[in-house]
Write a structure and sequence with these properties.
This protein is of the alpha/beta class. Helices cover 52% and strands 13% of the residues. It is globular, with a radius of gyration of 17 Å. The strands form two sheets. A six-stranded parallel beta sheet has the order 4-3-8-7-5-6, with helices on both faces. Strands 1-2 form a two-stranded antiparallel sheet. The two termini are 25 Å apart.
């Protein structure tokens, strides 16, 4: 469901994944994304923003709740160079927009438009550090709500319902959700309905990077498309199997991109 509707110039409609489980990257450029979000802020209307990567594409066919949540998002952008490369191969190029790279410019936009921000996910210490970093970067930014859910948090449970009520009362216009996939997308899709004046942006480890609780790959590695290698070296037991699954689906995605071309 596309709640915002047509996203005007700069939008894309590139499909990824097998037909029964396909999702769309529907915003192709950063300019189009920020234009749309600014408009939503002006109208005091919420949205849900997801950042698609290969790991998500490995999970979607096996998790109906994750797929339904993704399809309920208004805005989907490309997070990961393979997604960008596949879009170019299909003749429908999209820009790279990692969730971690969107946090600071979105906060600058919120400060400009006097839109309060909320932080949900990660840990108390990481959120406190991230809040300090965001205020330092965007003077005048108001952070109206901060909550680190307990271990085993259910994005469809009672604690999530309470968060949505608190978010609505806080006046937040944008909530950064740092719960990891698929929890953050499921949470954001529910929030889109239960707190309709709040925009939800799923940003993974972005707040941990800001607070220093995780170390992001050096800029040169990101420029060389080697951030995956950095993460694999930092946490091999967790990341190597994940990247193996991602590499395994690439041939099928290449064929799909060629068909779309």
């Amino acid at each position: 469901m596309q709640l915002i509707g047509n996203i005007a110039p700069g939008s894309g409609q590139m499909k990824f994944g097998s037909i029964p489980h396909a999702v769309e990257v529907n915003v192709a450029t950063r300019a189009a994304l920020f234009r749309t979000i600014a408009s939503q802020f002006d109208k005091r209307t919420g949205f849900a923003l997801a950042t698609l990567n290969l790991d998500h594409l490995t999970k979607l066919p096996n998790d109906p709740a994750f797929l339904a949540a993704y399809r309920a998002h208004d805005l989907v952008v490309a997070d990961g160079r393979p997604i960008v490369w596949l879009s170019k191969l299909a003749g429908q190029p999209v820009e790279l927009m990692p969730g971690s790279d969107l946090i600071l410019p979105l906060c600058a936009l919120c400060a400009e438009k006097s839109v309060p921000v909320a932080l949900v996910g990660s840990s108390d210490a990481a959120l406190a550090g991230a809040a300090d970093a965001l205020r330092a970067h965007s003077p005048g930014l108001r952070i109206s709500y901060v909550h680190a859910p307990r271990y085993g948090f259910d994005p469809q449970g009672a604690e999530a319902d309470k968060i949505f009520r608190d978010l609505a009362q806080s006046g937040a216009g944008l909530c950064f959700v740092a719960l990891g996939a698929p929890k953050q997308e499921v949470f954001a899709a529910r929030g889109r309905r239960q707190a309709p004046q709040v925009g939800f942006a799923s940003i993974g480890a972005g707040l941990d990077f800001l607070s220093g609780h995780q170390v992001r790959a050096p800029r040169i590695m990101r420029m060389l498309a080697l951030e995956w290698l950095w993460r694999a070296l930092q946490s091999p037991l967790r990341m190597i199997p994940r990247y193996a699954r991602c590499f395994a689906i690439l041939p099928g995605l290449v064929m799909q991109a060629l068909r779309q071309r």
